[in-house]
Amino acid sequence: MLDVRRLRLLRELDRRGTIAAVAEALTFTASAVSQQLSALEREAGVPLLERSGRRVALTPAGRTLVIHADAVLERLELAVSELAGAREGIRGPLRIGTFPSGGPAIVPAALAELARRHPALEPMVQEIDSARVSDGLRAGELDVALVHDYDFVPASPDTTVDQVPLLEEPMYLATGGATGSAPATGPAARGGTLAELLGPWATAPWITARDGTTGHAMAVRACQAAGFQPRVRHRVNDFRTVLALAAIGQGAGFVPEMATAHASGDVVLTRLPLFRRSKVAFRAGGGGHPAVAAFVAAAQTAVGATGGASARAASVR
């Protein structure tokens, strides 16, 4: 009989690439992970790993077993969800991940809705980059999370995670102050292609998210699609800081519509043919868990109540 806990380790090795990374993510020692994987090989009766020095790769049998492990763990998640649904009331901790801009815009309203409907539920929020959410869900660090992806940086297919669409919003180019000004007439004022809208800022300094984030990848790829490589001056993840820096002429940057309500009158916002999509993510098979379903409903209510962001406080092209 194959041990489910060892199957989980094999799956994490397939996703993370090294035994050390698996050990760090699941708070084991590397030697403990190695021993458990060796035990799984004995249970399977065939080699699952190919070892070469410190490097480990899955054999064809190992990759096949990972596919089955995904299905087994999804069924277990379904079982947990159904058992939770049989209990009376929704209670206990709910670990929620959120990207930074989702914190002030969605999470407080969603938690207020949860408290009103399910006062015994104990939400616990932590900020996390969308690129790390799948790892956090599989490792059991999170139960549910707000995630997003951008045009030019679509979410990677992941059979271990399910998602529910929440919000699609346009992106804006934020400029102002000494950065310069876009043409008052022409394509940038009327709306146009990405190259027409970003072209005037090809030689300007840029403000992007930190390296390794989806926001940084989106900014670089959008500029490349417009025909230039951005000269990045500032790397910050907080959109309010991006707007503040743009306002004093420190560079041009991208912000989603959700963040534009925080723009001052010194910021010029140009709507782009570029979108960000926010979703609620959870472990595959976990959508029926009462606490997860309650958070999804609360997040949808929160988004519906805000009606999306606006640019009332800024000059919008």
Distance between the termini: 64 Å
List low-pLDDT spans: 178-190, 308-317
Overall body shape: globular
Q: What percent of residues are in strands?
A: 15-25%
Reported for the largest beta sheet, the result is: 9 strands, mixed
Number of strands: 11
Question: What is the helical fraction, as a range of percent?
Answer: 40-55%
* Cα Rg: 23 Å
Q: Would you write up a description of this structure?
A:
With 317 residues, the chain is an alpha/beta fold. The chain is built from twelve helices and eleven strands. Strands 3, 4, 5, 6, 7, 8, 9, 10 and 11 form a nine-stranded mixed sheet that branches. A two-stranded antiparallel ribbon has the order 1-2. Helix 12 links the parallel strand 10 and strand 11. The longest helix is centred in the N-terminal third of the chain and has 27 residues. The protein starts with a helix and ends with a strand. 38% of the residues are buried.
